[in-house]
Design brief:
This protein is of the alpha+beta class. The chain has a single domain, classed as Winged helix-like DNA-binding domain superfamily/Winged helix DNA-binding domain (Arc Repressor Mutant, subunit A, Orthogonal Bundle). 35% of the residues lie in helices and 18% in strands. It has 6 helices and 8 strands. The strands form 3 sheets. The protein has a 3-stranded antiparallel β-sheet. Strands 6-5-8 form a 3-stranded mixed β-sheet, with no helix packed on it. α3 crosses α4.
């Protein structure tokens, strides 16, 4: 069952889309190309894993963009389909660029200790989705899957101090 997704034939890579391509998507939806939006898209395209709003804020460095602006723009970018939102059960929303259309996806392995995120290339075969849809009378079936565990660093239990 660990078959690469047909719509995700290569691992998630940094900078799959240029900043120009991303800003064109804003133009295509009649949205303003603001400095904060460009900065947010640039941060997301340079990171291989989903980021929280606070991590995005830290990655912006000295850019003039406060957390409220980041929250507002991430909501807008998500509604436009430019970013995907993930919830890994720790109360923090994480965002990454939505690449390759609505059917493009990948899965994550998340450390419950330090929240390290590893992207998983394996995917369920399309035949399984089709069979589930047929069996239960559903249409337009998709899936989202996250695995949780402890990474090697968090698995190590420190020796008690005397």
């Amino acid at each position: 069952m660990n078959k690469p997704c047909a719509h995700h034939a290569h691992p998630h890579r940094l900078v799959q889309q240029s900043l120009g391509e991303l800003t064109q998507k804003l133009r295509d939806q009649s949205r303003k190309i603001t400095g904060p939006r460009q900065a947010l898209l640039d941060v997301l395209r340079r990171h291989a894993h989903p980021l929280t709003n606070k991590e995005i804020h830290a990655a912006l460095g000295k850019a003039d963009c406060d957390l409220a602006t980041i929250y507002r723009n991430m909501h807008t970018l998500q509604a436009m389909g430019l970013v995907k939102r993930y919830d890994f059960g720790d109360g923090a929303a994480r965002f990454e660029l939505a690449e390759g259309g609505s059917d493009h996806h990948h899965h994550h392995l998340v450390c419950r200790g330090c929240q390290t995120i590893v992207e998983i290339e394996g995917c369920f075969p399309a035949e399984l989705e089709a069979e589930l849809a047929r069996r239960h009378g559903f249409s337009e079936v998709s899936h989202r899957l996250e695995f949780f565990g402890l990474c090697p660093r968090c698995r190590i239990v420190p020796e008690p101090t005397p």
